[in-house]
Amino acid sequence: MDFEGPIPASTPAEDAASAVTQWLVENHSPDAGKVRILADHETVVVYWKGDPPADLQQIVAAQPVPVTIRKATYSRDELVAAAKELIDANRGVITAAGPNHDLSAVWITFSSKAPQTALAAVRTQSAVPVESGGVLDIKSTSGRATTQGEYPPSQG
Q1: Which of 99, 100, 128, 146 has the fewest CB atoms within 10 Å around its CB?
Q2: What pLDDT, in 10s, does the model give residues 18-70?
Q3: pTM for the complete prediction?
């Protein structure tokens, strides 16, 4: 594939987000949430449950734009476990579930066949907050919904 014209340079916020994300990939922890660039396009946020490690704090401090470490309410493992329980208890109703971007809730999507009362019912079953991503019908050869990944996809 041939590209014409200059390749756009990354912004300082993109560089900072990339550096923090790379550190998170190399130092996997269930306490880490997602890295996001805020709407001002100048501030980067990373979510972390508990006290962030000194190495992460050093990476954050070395960035060319402000990077904030925000406290996460739950760990990724806690939210994945809650998501699996909700899926198991609501087969055919929930099509996907997993941690949201800031580790504050489980993000779920519903089958188009779910009753109108499904969200309220699921919320009463859950020990953690539940956010709805609306309706998403997933076709799968295994018949199993997913509990991995991030719902919804990262937004700037």
Answers
A1: 146
A2: 999 999 999 999 899 889 999 988 899 999 999 999 999 999 999 999 999 99
A3: 0.72
Considering Cα of 100, then 65, then 17, then 42, what sign does the dihedral take? Answer: positive
Tokens found for residue 137:
């019908």
Note whether 99 and 129 are within 8 A (CB). Answer: no
d(CA 109, CA 153): 13
* DSSP conformation letters of 73-136: SS-HHHHHHHHHHHHHHTTTTEEEEEE-TTSSSEEEEE-TTS-TTHHHHHHHH-SS-EEEEEE-
